[in-house]
Amino acid sequence: MHDVIIAGAGPVGLLLACELGLAGRSVLVLEREPEPGSEWKAYPLGMRGLSAGSVEVFDRRGLLETLRAASGVTDVPDEDAPPRLAGHFAGMVIDPAKVDVAALPFRLPGPAGEGMMTSLEAVEAVLSARAVDLGVEIRRGAAVSGVEQDAEHVVVRAGEDEHRARWLVGCDGGRSAVRRLAGFDFVGTEPAFTGYSLVATLTDAEKLRPGFTPTPAGLYVRTPFEGHLGLMDFDGGAFDRSRPPTRDHLQEVLRRVSGTDATVEEVHLVTTFTDRAMQATTYRRGRVLLAGDAAHVHSPLGGQGLNLGVGDAVNLGWKLAAALRGHDLLDTYTRERHPVGARVLDWSRAQVATLRPGSHSPALRALVRDLLDTRDGATYVFDRMSGKSIRHDLGDADPLAGRNAPEFRLVDGTRLGDLLHDGRGVVLDFTADRLLHDVARGWADRVRYAAGQAREDFGRGAVLVRPDGVIAWVGDREPDGESFARAARRWFGA
Fold first, then answer.
1. SS3 at position 48
2. Could you say which DSSP state residue 329 is in?
3. What's the total number of domains in the chain?
4. 246 against 42, higher pLDDT
5. Residues 18, 131: one domain?
6. Distance, CA of 134 to CA of 11 (rounded, Å)
7. Domain-terminating residue out of 343, 370, 386
């Protein structure tokens, strides 16, 4: 019997498996696809943008340089440099020069100052290797077909086999079998469009403008990758998965949406999607939990899906490990991550509203474009897209509490990101007399202690950082040991 079974060996399932492996838990990953690689995960269809917040997750687990190498990233930004890419809203690109990084609260320079482009193939390769190193078992060609649970265990059927575990996590995508079999409610809004992502041989491709181009009939996107196009046809999502998209159908959609006579000569790869925005009403039912697209789906506009799933995995992993030790924090998973998912779904819906054909959308786009051209507007969108502005309500009025921790550095060079590599919590004691040294020893197996003057401490005397990088407690210039102990007991047990 395993501690945890994870359905789905995509980036979210593999990252969750790594988090549990770091904590020494036994993990079985069941993946329905027989092989790890596919054309859909490689260049160009598999290209994804990792937000600064997601890049920071990889940095804080010691995987960033490996991921950069696997992604072919050689131009690493200087930590003190302003962002070079700031994202987009419904295809309206943000000018990085207009982003006022200094206005963002509690930001410090670090290796994850901006996002990066990668591929699903690269992310999965890096995480698979780390998971195997940590003792995770990955079985491919094993589609989940049954789920039963009682007060102590979950039984999962996959093919002819049955597997038992104390917990099951569905990371098996937008059409999650685990979500359906375990009886989760999945609610939201129906789609406005069918989207197409295709690689094709085109003639008269020069008639298609580069980048995002809204039209009276929809939207097309011509990317820098040869023959790669995105199309949005506002048909209410009627075509998605209803039948195979033939060359003739794609030709008709392209010409109607683009208003050009560009020709699709040959289709090499094509997939469809919609802007259906749905979310599970809770991320936990008994001993079954959901993460990533199994918990929430939305349009790919803005590229937030992978990043939202990364956040789910790092929030859940250490809490699930704690529950296996007898310290149950799992109710805080839905409480913290469900509002984040709902916010991203609304962000997606807002972008669709600016692109919907009709007489109102051009006026709305013009208004949004004017706002994005301001310093405040560009900074706001950059902050939202970075994933670093999330703040959970932990019941602490200090504005640092509940936030993703800044990249604190001690004057001796010690960096918070390096201290989080092993998946434990961290207490940073900035006081000259190491006031928390003795009380922190009670949690030494779960919380790493580091002391020293910080290059920037924002006027605080100490912080307690959870394994997911969230600040769980903040001490003033002379931090109170009992206040720290209460927070440590709350998040890390007795």
1. strand
2. -
3. 3
4. 246
5. yes
6. 16
7. 386
- Give the tens place of pLDDT for each residue, 266-288: 999 999 999 999 999 999 999 99
Give yes or no for residue 303 having a pLDDT over 90: no
Average pLDDT on 230-237 reads 95
239-272 in b/e form (b: 16+ CB < 10 A) is bbeeeebeeebbbebbeebbebebbbeebeebeb
CA atoms of 58 and 310, how far apart (whole Å): 10
Residue 332's CATH number: 3.50.50.60
CA distance 298 to 190: 10
Residue 43 and residue 22: Cα distance in Å, rounded?
30
Domain endpoint, select from 225, 252, 274: 274
pLDDT of residue 186: 97
Same-domain status, 127 and 54? yes
Say how far residue 413 (Cα) sits from the centre of its chain: 29
What pLDDT does 109 receive?
86
Kindly state the percentage of the chain with pLDDT values over 90. 83
pLDDT digits (tens, 9 = 90+) for 411-451: 999 999 999 999 999 999 999 999 999 999 999 999 999 99
Instruction: Tell me the residue range of the domain where 208 lies.
Output: 194-274
Q: Residues 262, 357: one domain?
A: no
Token pair belonging to 168: 């099951």
Q: How far apart are CA 471 and CA 399, in angstroms?
A: 10
Q: Answer yes or no: do 323 and 348 share one domain.
A: yes
Answer yes or no: is pLDDT of 37 > 80: no
**Where is average pLDDT lowest: 247-251, 299-303, 434-438?**
299-303
Are both 236 and 283 inside the same structural domain? no
**Mean pLDDT throughout 211-234?**
92
Q: Which residue has the higher pLDDT, 199 or 112?
A: 199
| CA 204/CA 305 separation, integer angstroms | 33
Residues 74 and 217 in one domain: no
Distance CA 210, CA 232 (A): 15
CATH number of the domain where residue 199 is located:
3.30.70.2450
Q: What is the pTM of this model?
A: 0.96
What CA dihedral angle connects 378, 384, 387 and 388, to 10 degrees? 70
What CATH number is associated with residue 482? Answer: 3.40.30.120
Which two tokens mark 404?
A: 């993703």
For the four alpha carbons of 251, 257, 258 and 260, in that order, the dihedral sign comes to positive
The verdict on 214 and 173 lying in the same domain is no
E strands present in 204-283:
211-215, 218-222, 228-233, 263-274, 277-280
What pLDDT, on a 0 to 100 scale, did the predictor assign at position 87?
Answer: 82
Is residue 112 located within the same domain as residue 224? no
Whole-number Å distance between alpha carbons of 74 and 432: 40
Cα gap 191→174, rounded to integer Å? 14
- For residue 117, is it within any domain? yes
